[in-house]
Amino acid sequence: LIMLGRGENRIFAIEQEVVSEFPGLDIVTVINNLREPERLDKVMERLRPDVVYHTAAHKHVHYMERDPEEAVMNNVAGTVNLARAVEKCGTERFVFISTDKAADPRGVMGATKRLMEMFLKRIDPESPCRFMTVRFGNVIGSTGSVVPLFLDQIARGGPVTVSDPEATRFFMTVKEASLLVIQASVSGSGGETYILDMGEALNILEMAKDIIILTGHEPEEEIRIEYTGLREGEKLHEVLVGEDESLEPPAAGEKIMIAESPSPGGGSFMADIDRLIEAARRGEREQVLKLMSGLMPGFGGGPARES
Q1: Which of the four pLDDT bands, split at 50, 70 and 90, describes residue 26?
Q2: What is the secondary structure of the chain as a DSSP string?
Q3: Which residues are catalytic?
Q4: pTM across the whole model
Q5: Tens digits of per-residue pLDDT, 101-128?
């Protein structure tokens, strides 16, 4: 098992957890940055992994609205570099972790993920590696997710912050997310976008009230709920599939669906991706947003971005 990341403390914590559960497992740790293609190529050539699970990304929507160049460098350039590296070293399967925010993206973060879904679908037919995408909802308990945030706010005596009383989100457990990723890596033939059937989206306000009650408090009486308004790039309601996509229903007894989408981009798509990365590298914010809009007609429409 190879653990590659640029944050040594996170890698250390994950390694300690895995070693305690599976002391006999052969673990290799690598501190590396996907944004440095030359070093990445050498690492991948040395390790030659059979399967790559690509989970590295900036994921906080409002932060990426404020720093779209950084979103492109990490979420786009990092993914392109890794995809090209695995093609060179003989990796058989590559699973890309995307998000429901990539369906009809409103914000920069979702747009970067949607672009990479399109990019991997584009290169898959001609590649010796099979590229699959898994589109997540919110993973309960994951770093930066809403449930740990609510618990932390309750522990401090409140208030619990909710963006909008009508806001809804899709949720999945860590186990569901893990099994979805692994199943995609096993059953995918290349080019698919997998989505877990997560049922109905949950109302965030009702979830906040339930968590307050489960911790032994009364909503509003003991723990106040404060409405903050939607942040930059956020939607009131997420969707699992875009307007240009169709959903293939799961087989009997299964919970995994496939989103069918049209062939990505025109003849200049790949060159435009390279231009987008170069504009981000040079810090040309307006050009970054212009190129993203050109690559995905209809992208945008959220609150005004900071200049």
Answers
A1: very high
A2: -EEEES-HHHHHHHHHHHHHH-TT---EEEE--TT-HHHHHHHHHHH--SEEEE------HHHHHH-HHHHIIIIIIHHHHHHHHHHHHT--EEEEEEEGGGSS--SHHHHHHHHHHHHHHHHGGG-SSEEEEEEE-EETT-TT-HHHHHHHHHHTT-PEEES-TT-EE-EE-HHHHHHHHHHHHHH--SS-EEEE---SPEEHHHHHHHHHHHTT--BTTTB-EEE--PPTT--SB--SS-TT-EEEPPPTT--EEEEE-PPP--TTHHHHHHHHHHHHHTT-HHHHHHHHHHHSTT---SSPPP-
A3: 101
A4: 0.90
A5: 999 998 999 999 999 999 999 999 999 9
